[in-house]
Amino acid sequence: MSEIKAYGAHSATEELVPLKIERRELQPKDIAIEILYCGVCHSDIHTARSEWGPARYPVVPGHEIIGKVTAVGAEVKNFKPGDAVGVGCLVDSCQKCPACEDGLEQYCENGATYTYGSPDKISGGHTLGGYSEKIVVDESFVLRIPENLDLAKTAPLLCAGITTWSPLKHWNVKAGEKIGVVGLGGLGHMGIKFARAMGAHVVMITTSEKKGEDAKKLGADEVLISKDSEAMKSHASSFDFLLNTIPVNHDVEPYLNLLKRDKTMVLVGAIEPLSNVNGGTLIRKRRNLAGSLIGGIRETQEMLDFCGEHQVLPEVEMIDMQGINQAWDRVVKADVKYRFVIDMKSLK
Amino acid sequence: MSEIKAYGAHSATEELVPLKIERRELQPKDIAIEILYCGVCHSDIHTARSEWGPARYPVVPGHEIIGKVTAVGAEVKNFKPGDAVGVGCLVDSCQKCPACEDGLEQYCENGATYTYGSPDKISGGHTLGGYSEKIVVDESFVLRIPENLDLAKTAPLLCAGITTWSPLKHWNVKAGEKIGVVGLGGLGHMGIKFARAMGAHVVMITTSEKKGEDAKKLGADEVLISKDSEAMKSHASSFDFLLNTIPVNHDVEPYLNLLKRDKTMVLVGAIEPLSNVNGGTLIRKRRNLAGSLIGGIRETQEMLDFCGEHQVLPEVEMIDMQGINQAWDRVVKADVKYRFVIDMKSLK
Q: Are residues A104 and A186 in the same domain?
């Protein structure tokens, strides 16, 4: 075990403070990573504040991790010191159940180990995330970063990126299809970029004219203001797919009504009871309402490779570790375009 | 036009009474059918009582029609007098839109013509259903009844049958899969029979021990009492498909939680806002909540042919036309096993 610097919360009501943590000794299949950048996800805040159930303290958040390999275990085959790598929301899973065998470790039937706040099967205690200098991770959960990507900007791909990429691929979004992205935040802005890069006709669906303008700059072909009932009516039954990134409960009925027959709206944000799902709206056009959780390791690598090929990168605002509490305040107010990334040099 | 006997409602609050209606003259592609049997569907009641919006009166209900061809128009190719035929919920559609081209006339983008209560594009006025002696229908909406089927029992296949068959086929239910049927009424009892005939392991999911016993007699392999939270827990994440026939709003969350990853619960009854659809339950296992509306003409014929091959038939209770109001009272109280069928001889 080696003691390293981190930022974390000691309770649900405190701000994040500097603290010292330990990382496990390198296991045969482990990779030691010096963390260069870590994205700031709203989940970090929900977890640290025990908003998603009681957290294990201290919480060291951070699951959009980019770094360089500093050492590898004796049995590691695919990485070497100096490699640019990423770690997302997952650091372990059973590797044996049907979900793991399908490359969908996020749905591990024996419980995936999340990058922070999960019981740690190897070192005991609970996992501690990327708001820190260093992390040690089984190589099966380490991603390779294409050489031509700007490392600082790559961090948010590990959660915001894969969470939107995975459903777009799973529901087989194709060039020429009319795809709606509902909600413009960290996830929504990646949804626009991916759907556009896949060749779709991308419609930003938002309550806000201002966000609509921003979405166009990010690549949206069209904007649909969801408060405009005439506009919503004119788009009824016209969408091939809806990626709904709204992170809280909302009235989903007006969006479901936008889907063509047999098409799907997938929720990636709202993990709570939803207002107004009308059975009739599903029945009348054989529509589907689905959910999707982050993505598996294999598809995360595919996404990173795609981003390398197509130069798809998030919009980020760089911060120092010391500015994290102010950054969180701004995340809560949705005042960020579109993802904070911590420059981990500031922690040294 | 010829005047024929029927039963119908003159207003939302009256009982059904005998009345005289007219049927259009035979068009070149029309078939004239002497009605032998007509099933009684809960939709008949909802429509006649204007519970699904203001009805066009008089309402002559009935969309589970079995009869014999008495005459055919000059251009009719596939039927001849004497043929045993059926007419379900649909009697016309645009025949040109993508849905019609896919053989899914129930989703016609220009509006399908329902067997009763729809504007009639040919004769003007509105359509009048099967609680009558005779009907005239375009041959494209007429089904052929396999010779070995008992005609009286066949009637409910035209709505209760196809409404459950269509989603089981669309979601590709296979032999050996674990399929849940939620709710045991006219639709649920057909769901059990079809899923069983397809080789699935069928679980009846019901609030009632008594209905569970009945379901076993109908072919269910297993019963899950939905009020038993321990039993529900032990079946969590274990179903390949759920056919939800509950006809009213209900808490769908406990059922969604029964689905394996990537699997679907399809609603065929509840055409209203649903209680408690939890986004998290969909997201955590990439589950789907969908709806399905009756079925197209092509698949209705496939279902009838399947029923002929496998001798799958509904359980029916025969009534005379004069007993319709008492029968409706019993339908409303869910006191029927599992479908009333009117013997139309009683109307002569």
A: no
Residue A293 to residue B273, Cβ atoms within 8 A: no
Q: List the single residue in B271, B278, B288 with the smallest CB-CB distance to A290.
A: B288
User: Among partner residues B107, B267, B283, which is closest to A285 by beta-carbon distance?
Assistant: B107
Q: Which amino acid, one-letter code, is at A61?
A: P
**B218 backbone dihedrals φ, ψ, rounded to 5°:** -80, -10
Q: Name which of B16, B32, B107 is nearest B69 in CA terms.
A: B32
Instruction: Give dist(CA B288, CA B282) in Å, integer.
Output: 6
Judged against a pLDDT cut of 80, whether residue B1 lies above it is answered with no
DSSP state of B86: E
Return the closest-CA partner of residue A251 out of A229, A231, A221: A229
Show the domain range for A131. Answer: 2-158+314-347
Question: Domains in chain B: how many in total?
Answer: 2
Helices and strands per DSSP (H, E), number in chain B: 11, 19
Q: Is the pLDDT confidence value at B2 over 70?
A: no
- Both B168 and B140 in a single domain? no
DSSP class of residue B26 equals P
pLDDT in tens, A1-43: 568 999 999 999 999 999 999 999 999 999 999 999 999 999 9
**For the domain that residue B180 is a member of, what is the CATH number?**
3.40.50.720
Whether A30 is in a domain gets the answer yes
Q: Which residue has the tokens 């372990």?
A: A92
Residue A1: what pLDDT? 55
Nearest to A17 by CA among A26, A28, A25, A5: A5
* In a shared domain, residues B14 and B154: yes
Residues A100 and A187 in one domain: no
Residue in the block written with tokens 């039937």: A109
Torsion angle (degrees, nearest 10) of CA A266, A269, A272, A276: -50
What is the per-residue pLDDT across A169-184, written as a single tens digit (0 to 9) for each?
999 999 999 999 999 9
Q: Is B107 in Cβ contact with A286 (below 8 Å)?
A: yes
CB–CB contact A283 B271 (8 Å): yes
Q: How far apart are CA A247 and CA A264, in angstroms?
A: 18
Instruction: Provide the pLDDT for residue A3.
Output: 82
Which pair of structure tokens corresponds to residue A197?
A: 């890069």
**Which pLDDT does position A2 carry in this prediction?**
64
Q: What is the pTM of this model?
A: 0.95
Is the pLDDT at A223 greater than 90, yes or no?
A: yes
Query: ipTM of this predicted complex?
Result: 0.95
Statement to judge: residues B241 and B262 lie in one domain: yes
Rounded Cα distance, B125 and B328, in Å: 26
The answer to whether the Cβ–Cβ distance between A289 and B293 falls below 8 Å is no
- Statement: residue A124 has pLDDT above 90: no
Q: Does a structural domain hold residue B112?
A: yes
Chain B residues in contact with A249 by the CB 8 A cut-off are 279
Q: Are residues B278 and B169 in the same domain?
A: yes
Radius of gyration of chain B (CA): 20
Report yes or no on A301 lying in a domain: no
N residues, chain B: 348
Whether residues B7 and B153 fall in one domain: yes
The reply to whether B47 and B175 lie within a common domain is no
Q: What is the CATH number of the domain that holds B85?
A: 3.90.180.10
List B205's β-bridge partners, or say none: B182, B224
Closest partner residue to A279 (CB to CB) among B170, B271, B283 is B271
* Cross-chain Cβ contact A291/B279 below 8 Å: yes
Judge: B274–A277 Cβ closer than 8 Å, yes or no: yes
Q: How far is B75 from chain A (nearest CA, A)?
A: 33
Interface test with A, best of B282, B285, B288 (most A CBs within 10 A): B282
B33 lies in a domain?
A: yes
